[in-house]
Amino acid sequence: SSSSEEEAGPSAAAAAAAEQRREERLRRFRELHMKRYEACKLNSQEVVEEDKRLKLPPNWEAKKARLEWELKVQEKKKECAARGEDYERVKLLEISAEDAERWERKKKKKNPDLGFSDYAAAQLRQYQRLTRQIKPDLEQYEKLKEQYGEALYPTSDSLLHGTHVPSKDGVDRMVADLEKQIEKREKYSRRRPYNDDADIDYINERNAKFNQKAERFYGKYTAEIKQNLERGTAV
């Protein structure tokens, strides 16, 4: 009987250990199953969100940021109004000196001229540029208005030829402005002066442009070789 009890003891301990291992495996299996379920759930949510983002307009993020910024500005204005403060003044006080200098530099670099599109647009830009430089003579305008009355504002039926004689100051201003335009055009002309004494090492205008570019980039490296070829002493 004692030997049977000794045999039953280890078998019971082994069964308990096996049961414990089984419970541990089941527990790990349930944890893995829950992790898999959570991963599938998160993946499905991300797919739905990505589908929503793809259906949104291309500039939605910028619009959203703009709307959030406008909401913050409105809240800030309400707070300033409640305290009896000027919002523009408060906003300027919050801007650092570095940001102000950076904005000023950016404003100076900004070029509203987008380049040539057609002759009508170029003519309009020139007209606007010239009219911005005009300083109206209000005293002369009042005198003309008293002199001509309603005739100062012509209509489609008005006869303008020969009815207006410009003043000497006006003619002088026009001449000075035309001379300034001519000087500016000559300054920005891209025609290069022709040097009669320069060596002719090209066969046409296109080849001359190519040689100039090659000389500009590689001239200092090939100067000695070129001199040797001209003297006939090249090895």
Give a brief rundown of this model.
It contains eight helices and no strands. It is an all-alpha fold and 235 residues long.
Could you describe the 3D structure shown?
Belongs to the SYF2 family. Pfam families: SYF2. It is a single chain. This protein has 235 residues and is mainly alpha-helical. The protein has a domain at 59-105. It is 73% helix and 0% strand. It has 8 helices and no strands. The longest helix has 54 residues, at 2-55. The radius of gyration is 43 Å and the shape is flat. The mean pLDDT is 79.
Secondary structure topology:
Layout: H1 2-55, H2 60-83, H3 87-94, H4 97-109, H5 119-132, H6 138-148, H7 168-187, H8 205-231
Count of helical regions: 8
**Element order: H for helix, E for strand:** HHHHHHHH
Strand content: under 5%
Radius of gyration: 43 Å
Helix content: over 70%
Strand elements, count: 0
What profile does the largest beta sheet have? none
The class by helix and strand makeup works out as mainly alpha
Nearest-integer average pLDDT: 79
For the termini, the CA-CA separation is: 116 Å
